[in-house]
Amino acid sequence: MTNSNQPDKSIAGRLEEAGSQMTFFEHLGELRKRIINSLYAIGIGAFVGVYVSQKFINFIIQPMKEALAAAGLEQKLVYTHPAGLLNMVITLGVYLGVVLASPVVLYQIWLFVAPALYKHERSAVTGFLFSTVFLFLSGIAFGYFVTLPYVLKFLVGFNKGSIVPMISINEYFDLILMILLGLGLVFELPILIFFLSLFGIVTPKFLWQNFRYAILVIAVVAAIITPTPDAQTMLIFMAPMVVLYFVGIGVSAAVVRRKRKALEAERAGTTA
Fold first, then answer.
1. What is the mean pLDDT of residues 71-94?
2. In the chain, which ranges are continuous DSSP H helix?
3. Assuming Cys at both sites, which of 40, 55, 250, 252 could form a disulfide with 197, CB separation 3.0 to 4.6 Å?
C-alpha cells in the first residue's frame, strides 16, 4: 500500500526532471539570448550565402532554360532594372544564409525548449528536430526536380503564335521561390504532427477519422501554392502532401506509444 506522500514526490520528481523553474524575466532573458545567437548565425550564413550565390544562379535558371529549349525559344533571361541582377544575388544569398544557419537556429530553439520537457520527450524531440532540415531540403529538391520543370514547361508551352516571352530573372526568381519554399514548408507536415502529438493536441485516431477534412485542407493549400490553373499541376502538389499526412499518422502513433510506455513505467515506479 502506498502512502499519501508518494504522489507529491512523483510530481516533484517530474518537475525536477522537466528542468529548473525559471521566473518570467529569466525566461525572457533566455529567449533574448537564443534570438541573438540565431541572428548572429543567420548574419554569418547570409555573408557566406551572398559570396557563393553567383555560383548558384546558373543552377537556378537551368529549369527555365530547359523549358525555353523545349518550346523552341531562345534560352535567355533578362533583367529590366540596372540593379536587378545585384538584387537577385543578394536576395538569393540571404535565403542561402538562412538555410546554412538553420541547424544553429534549430539548436537554439532546442536549448530554449528542452528545459520544459521531460527526459523521454527530450530524447524523442532531438531526432525529429534535426530532421526538419532534411525534410525542408527534401521539399526543395522535390520542387526543383519534379514540380518546377513541369510548371515551367506548361507556362512556356502556353505561348502561341508570334508572342515571344521576355522573362525577367527577378520575376522568375520570385516564382521559383514561392514554389520551392512552399514545398519546403509543406514537407514539414510530419514535424508539425509530431509536436501536436507530443503535447496531446492530436492522436493517430483523430488524424485517421478526420482524413477527409485533411484532404480538403490539402486541396486548398495546393490551390494556393500552385502557380498554374490546371488540375494536373495541383495534383502534383497534392500528392506529396497526402503521403506526408499518412507519414504524420505513423509519427503520431509512435509518439503516443512512446508516451504510453513512459507513463506505464512511471506508474510502476510509483506503486513499487
1. 88
2. 6-17, 24-70, 84-113, 119-142, 148-157, 169-186, 189-198, 204-209, 211-225, 231-271
3. 252
